[in-house]
């Protein structure tokens, strides 16, 4: 029988792409979504916070739990502690109740115990819940994950529609985009083998690119006004919940976080897709 995986946050960008990929690769998938949300692969179970009494019996004995619930912008009604930390704790409890031995979690590149950023603190605490769970875990610290419908690209498309692309500050800060189907391949290896067991791995693509260069490639020759705005102004807008960037998006951009792609490549033995190939296929699709 094919292995079965449970995916929380199954309707989010990573959940729906990895879920579809796994489903097409022969895995049985059970997507966990909130009421009113759905996915177009595998089975679906509705849950508000992963703690309903009868939930464990419905997913009992699955091979792995992919915990993809998370948020990168907090509000008064939905803060990081409630979503990123508490739901990771609930995910661990659910795995134990359902006798699922493996958990995979996507944390953020730049997370460590010395961080002072609220988002990273919540991710660090979620990591700790998972590391101390006694479950076989794999924690991926991801840079931007890109694909056809990723939040960064959707956001850039919105700016293109408005006829102006904003670059906060110098635009020289860098990141390491990774293709979502490469993420799916790595997840499959983590579910089916032991190479990634009980490890924290940077989930970063093969190229380091500045925001300026990424935007230039993304535009693909389109004549759109590029407006360089000083960081203070963009940050002011973000604090007042205006403009395309959240305060923590800006902190992560300014953080210029670069990870260890070589380690990921040597563990997985995969050839990773270049970000310009992903952007090219986006244009063709
Ligand atoms: N995408 C990236 O580049 C990237 C980079 C680093 C780390 N990550 C991490 O990877 C994970 C998946 O990211 P993503 O890009 O797929 O995010 P996403 O598209 O925003 O999806 C987030 C998922 O979490 C669910 N969720 C959020 N708040 C919830 C709550 N209070 N209760 C239950 N479910 C809730 C959402 O469900 P609803 O639709 O019901 O809100 C959605 O299914 C997150 O942990 C994220 O921090 C992503």
Description:
By secondary structure, this protein is α/β, with parallel strands linked by helices. The chain has a domain at 4-146 and 176-205 and 258-272: 3-Layer(aba) Sandwich (Rossmann fold). Helices cover 41% and strands 20% of the residues. The chain has 11 helices and 13 strands. Helix 3 links the parallel strand 4 (64-67) and strand 5 (102-108). It starts with a strand and ends with a helix. Residues 9, 11-15, 34, 37, 49, 68-72, 78, 83, 87, 106, 108, 142, 144-145, 151 line the site of NADP nicotinamide-adenine-dinucleotide phosphate.
Quick description:
The chain has 285 residues and is of the alpha/beta class. It has helices at residues 13-24, 55-59, 80-97, 118-131, 151-161, 180-192, 211-219, 231-239, 247-255, 261-268, 275-284; strands at 4-8, 28-33, 43-46, 64-67, 102-108, 136-142, 145-146, 164-168, 174-175, 178-179, 199-203, 209-210, 225-229. The longest helix has 18 residues, at 80-97.
């Amino acid at each position: 029988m094919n292995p079965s995986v449970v995916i929380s946050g199954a309707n989010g960008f990573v959940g729906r792409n990895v879920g579809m990929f796994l489903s097409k690769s022969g895995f049985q998938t059970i997507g966990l979504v909130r009421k009113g949300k759905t996915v177009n692969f595998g089975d679906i179970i509705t849950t508000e916070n992963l703690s309903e009494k009868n939930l464990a019996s419905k997913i009992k004995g699955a091979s792995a739990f992919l915990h993809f619930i998370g948020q990168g912008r907090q509000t008064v009604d939905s803060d990081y502690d409630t979503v990123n930390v508490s739901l990771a704790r609930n995910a661990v409890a659910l795995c134990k109740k359902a006798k699922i031995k493996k958990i995979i979690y996507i944390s953020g590149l730049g997370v460590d115990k010395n961080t002072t950023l609220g988002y990273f603190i919540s991710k660090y605490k979620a990591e700790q819940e998972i590391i101390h769970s006694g479950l076989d875990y794999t924690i991926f610290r991801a840079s931007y994950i890109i694909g056809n419908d990723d939040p960064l690209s959707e956001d850039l498309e919105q700016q293109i529609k408005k006829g102006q692309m904003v670059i906060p500050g110098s635009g020289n800060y860098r990141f390491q985009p990774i293709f979502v189907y490469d993420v799916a391949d790595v997840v499959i290896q983590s579910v089916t083998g032991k190479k990634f067991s009980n490890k924290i791995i940077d989930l970063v693509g093969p190229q380091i690119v500045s925001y300026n260069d990424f935007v230039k490639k993304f535009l693909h020759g389109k004549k759109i006004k590029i407006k360089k705005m000083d960081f203070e102004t963009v940050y002011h807008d973000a604090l007042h919940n205006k403009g395309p960037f959240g305060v923590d998006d800006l902190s992560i951009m300014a953080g210029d976080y670069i990870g260890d792609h070589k380690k990921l490549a040597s563990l997985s033995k995969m050839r990773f897709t270049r970000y310009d190939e992903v952007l090219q296929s986006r244009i063709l699709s």
